[in-house]
């Protein structure tokens, strides 16, 4: 904060409390996932991997769809990590990308709609008044550009910005297109890396 206003310089944005927490959690989750992957590489865990793969093949796409809808709201389910893991178990790539992107976009649209209808009291209750002021200040400086950046980076809390877009009654068509396109790009990249991870683990 500078003179009561949120710092909108790149490093200042990252230091903001509402961004710092999810970024930290995302980094911790990445370390945990990497540790689990290294453990699963052990040949003794192969039967477990095959059992999980069977589960993903049976219910994976439906589970991903439901989870990404929820993750599009402010429920921190970690949709990027889920997509990465699902891809590593060999779910159909194109279907996985479309299902995850659609689910996340629906979740974000729900956020937008709730904020649009219920207004500032609802958003302030969800985020906290201080956090809301920081986000409003950031949006005033950077607008849709910050939304695109957050949408393309897995650990950034773009879900929070969906509430802001609804509160400000931002153009819904632009909101939907940017949400869908940024997550389509992100999930496509993650599916590729997930597939490579699955090949490395020997489960694809």
Explain this structure to me?
With 204 residues, the protein is an all-alpha fold. The chain has one domain. It is built from nine helices and no strands. It has helices at 10-15, 17-40, 46-72, 79-88, 93-127, 129-142, 144-152, 158-167, 172-201. Helix 3 packs antiparallel against helix 4 and helix 5 (93-127) packs across helix 6 (129-142). It is globular and about 55 Å long.
Summarize the structure.
By secondary structure, the protein is an all-alpha fold.
Question: Mind sketching the topology for me?
Answer:
Elements: H1 10-15, H2 17-40, H3 46-72, H4 79-88, H5 93-127, H6 129-142, H7 144-152, H8 158-167, H9 172-201
Question: Mean pLDDT, rounded to whole units?
Answer: 80
Please report which band the strand proportion falls in: under 5%, 5-15%, 15-25%, 25-35%, 35-45% or over 45%: under 5%
Tell the overall outline. globular
Number of helical segments with 4 or more residues: 9
**What's the total count of β strands?**
0
State the major sheet: none
Helix amount, in percent? Answer: over 70%
Radius of gyration: 18 Å
């Amino acid at each position: 904060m500078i003179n009561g206003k949120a710092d909108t310089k790149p490093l200042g944005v990252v230091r903001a409390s509402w961004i710092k927490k999810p970024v930290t959690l995302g980094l911790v989750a990445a370390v945990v996932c990497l540790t689990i992957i290294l453990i699963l590489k052990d040949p003794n865990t192969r039967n477990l991997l095959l059992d999980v793969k069977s589960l993903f093949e049976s219910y994976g796409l439906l589970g991903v769809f439901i989870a990404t809808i929820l993750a599009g709201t402010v429920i921190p389910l970690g949709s990027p990590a889920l997509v990465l893991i699902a891809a590593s178990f060999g779910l159909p790539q194109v279907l996985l990308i479309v299902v995850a992107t659609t689910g996340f976009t629906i979740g974000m649209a729900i956020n937008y709609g709730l904020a649009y209808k219920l207004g500032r009291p609802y958003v302030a209750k969800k985020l906290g008044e201080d956090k809301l002021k920081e986000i409003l200040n950031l949006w005033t400086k950077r607008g849709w550009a910050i939304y695109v950046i957050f949408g393309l980076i897995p650990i950034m809390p773009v879900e929070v910005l969906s509430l802001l877009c609804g509160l400000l009654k931002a153009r819904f068509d632009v909101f939907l297109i940017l949400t869908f396109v940024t997550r389509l790009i992100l999930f496509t990249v993650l599916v590729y890396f997930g597939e490579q991870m699955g090949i490395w683990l020997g489960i694809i």
